[in-house]
Structures are given as C-alpha cells and as structure tokens.
Amino acid sequence: MEEPRRRRLTARMSHPNDARGVCEKTDNIGRIMSMIGKLRALSLLAVFVLGGAAHAGAAIYKNNVLTASHAAVAGTHVAVIPPGKAVLSETFRGFEFPDGNGRIEISENDKVSYSDSESTLTPEGLQSLRISFRGKSPVVLNGSPAVLIDGISAADASMGVFLLALGNDRMTVYIYAFYPDGDQAARKAMKNSLLSCIFNPARVGSISAGYTLSTAGTSLKFVDEVGSTRYFTPDGKPAGDTVETAFFTSAAADDIVPPEGRKAYADAAMKKYLSAYEHTIVSERSVSYGGLQGTETIAEFEGIPRRVRNAGKAAGAAKTRKIARKCKAYQVLLFDEDEGKIYIFSGLALYDTDSYLSQFERISSTFMKGK
Question: Fewer CB near the terminus (10 Å): N or C of the chain?
Fold first, then answer.
C-alpha cells in the first residue's frame, strides 16, 4: 500500500448513461428533452458546416460524463482522461509520458470567445500555432460546438498533433496532443483522450480548501495540510510508511457527479483507495453534512497480520503466532453541485475499528463550507 500520508484519492467510476423515469409523465419529459438536445446539436453542427469548414471530416458527437478517471489540470477549466501512462506534468499545464514520447498541453484565453477563435483555425491560421494542417472535424461536445484539428507539428515533422478547440462566449480553450506520427495506437489514444474532455467554465481545475472540520470529542489531531489534503492522526504526528492505528484525510476537488452516478462513483473511489487490498463493502448510506448531500461507504479488508503470544503453548512450539487482522476503511463524499465540488473524507482504522469509525463520522459531521 502506498504511503498513506501522500495518497491522493483519485477513484475510477463507471456511470450509467441514463435513468428510467418512474411514471409516464417523467418518460415523456425525458423524450422531449432528448429531442431538444438533438435539435440543438444539429443546429450547432449546421452553423459549422454552413460556415465552410475546410477539409471537414465526419461530425463527432460526444456526450461525456465526468468520471473519476478524468484528471483536472490545475489552472484550467477542463478535465480529460489521460492516455496510457501519461501523468500530470510539473512543468506545463497538461500531461506527459515518462519516456518523453508525447504530451498533452492545455492553453486558455479568457479574452477571446470561442466563435472568434474558431474562425481563425484555417490552414493558413494554424501556421501561427505551428501546426501543418491535415484535416478538420466538427465536434458537438456535450451540446456545445467544438472542433478537432488534425495536423503535423511544424516544429518537429516527426510528431503528429491533434488540436481540440472549445469554449464559450467568454473564453477559448486549446488542447494540443502530440504523438509520434505514424504510431496509430498513440494517435488513437490521444484522440480519445481529447474527446473525453469535460469543460466546466464555472471553475478552474484547481483544488482549494474552503471548508472547516472539527476534531473536538475525538482522539484524532490535525497534523498538517499538504497541497489540497489535510492529515489527521491519533498522536498528531505525521504518519510514516505504515499506519499504526488510524489515519484520516480530507480534501476538496473540482468535480461534478450527477445524483444517478454517485453510488457507482463512491464504490469505485473505495476500490481505488484500497487498491492494494481485497476488500468487501459492508455499509453504504446517504448522508447530509453542512447542507450538502453525499454518500458514506465503509469497507472491510484484511490488514497485515499481527503477532500474539501463544497461551499454554506445547513444548517446542513458537512463542508467538500470527493472526489475521480485520481492518476497516471509511469514506464520505459530499457533492456541491452549485460550485462543482466534491469534498472527500477518508479514513483507515487498523485497530479499535469501531471506535475510530465513530470518530471519523464525528469529524465528517462537523463539515462546514467556508474558511
């Protein structure tokens, strides 16, 4: 298991594409809304086509749902599912491969509208972006117009490049994906990554605290805050490579998960949190803390066996023996739809599990938005 103090909860989830209505009226409303959505998408596409897109490819329709596989890039308004082994870059806004063989870069301009920017994405206009034009496909991304450019890097002819341009009436987002030209697997992975994009103009993809918790009435003490995560341990000292008794963390992430996807999100988050252990979810329930609705999940897993003395041991028998240790993991996710946030509280209880689970719940229940 990774060092708990440095863990960052980035769960993976599957999400149902639809939810069935419970009555005929609900079904009718759903059909009407679906029709409106399709008509809107078609009208947006018509605007693009009538605008005379050069070398336009087939239209691409994407109705993406934010999952925990998406990664938000700090300082931007977008999240994508990174391709393959790509990781967040520490030197630019985007993702890079450890072997240096490809990258995704994100650029935003809050002074130019998308419609103004899109009109400049011609073969000639792309030269200023150092892209040699190969093709252009209209995209309808979650009901909004976008465009996918296919080209070759003018700076390095051995690198192919996709450019996904999107935005609204206040800003433009360019997402570049560079890959070895001729590598069809890399090309497909980069294209799929860009088309997984979620655009959230309301908030940037950074993480901020903006909430309070209290440990009053518990044995847990605040340790420190590193990045976006707060750490709590029973003795108030940083956890080392192992957790002696219990460990609790809290964080806030910029994500949006619709109500019908929350159970799947929570289950997958717990699976990721305990990725090093086989575990069983023993309890799931809805909670409401600080005015926000959420989920509470408790899982049981077998921790590192501990040694106990052999009572009345036979002659020649070992003085101690190993016994399995049932440990428990705690997780609460609170969903703030208005601000597009998820507040994440996670805990591990290796001993005195019931006592620590009660303390985790007590701390979580004190959640309040605001510094």
Answer: C
Sequence-separated contacts (24+) of 358-362 with Cβ below 8 Å: 359/218, 359/219, 359/220, 359/246, 359/248, 360/248, 360/330, 361/296, 361/330, 362/217, 362/218
Tokens found for residue 82: 């990174």
Tell me the backbone φ, ψ of residue 267, rounded to 5 degrees: -60, -45
Question: Quick one: CA dihedral 280, 282, 284, 287, positive or negative?
Answer: negative
pLDDT above 60 (res 57): yes
Rounded Cα gap, residues 38 and 13, in angstroms: 26
Average pLDDT over residues 303-318: 56
Q: What is the pTM of this model?
A: 0.46
CATH numbers and ranges of domains, the chain: 30-199 (3.40.1000.10), 207-369 (3.40.1000.10)
Report which secondary-structure segment, H or E, holds 135: strand 131-141
Residue 252: is its pLDDT beyond 60? yes
Alpha-helical segments (H) within 274-306: none
pLDDT of residue 64 exceeding 60, the answer is: yes
pLDDT of the residue at 320: 55
Q: For residue 316, how far is the Cα from the chain centroid?
A: 55
Checking if the pLDDT of 114 tops 90, the result is yes
Report the DSSP pairing between strands 131-141 and 60-62.
parallel
Q: What is the pLDDT of residue 71?
A: 85
